[in-house]
Specification:
alpha/beta; 6 helices; 172 residues
Amino acid sequence: MKSARDKAILVSVGSFYPDQAGGPANTVYWLTKGLVSKGIEVVVVTSDRGLKNLYPVDQWQDTEFGKVLYVATQNILLPWRVVLKTIAQLRNFETVYVTSVFYTLSFIIAPIAVLLGKRVFWSPRGELMKSALGFAALKKKFVLGLVNLVKSKVIFHSTSEEETQQMKDLLG
């Protein structure tokens, strides 16, 4: 029999609705909304980027797309407070969802979640495509070394057959 924790997911993402800065802000919103409609508890820890005073910062919000904590963040590239708040939540969940392989938040949270025995879903969102790997190649090579250490314990989510194939070619 499944426990309540099996029907819950922790989402850690740097940018989230109502932010309109990039694709994940909206697509992860629709993902969370769909999960909630299926009776899955969703908890999101994210930055306050693009919040526009729609929700209070550093306070849990109950929304139609899950329970959300918008964390005050000074540097979106190194969102340390979001990392710490996410780590604090990890013990409460069996399933964790992150996006972007090369974003600081994700490549810190995913390996920690794996080490804690959590089920990790990781959506690279096209970052592992050959055309994307040429930019900042040294940084990406370092991060891919970390990803290779945990890849067998992660479920990667792709958005196309081409992306699936290129992820298989790169990660095995």
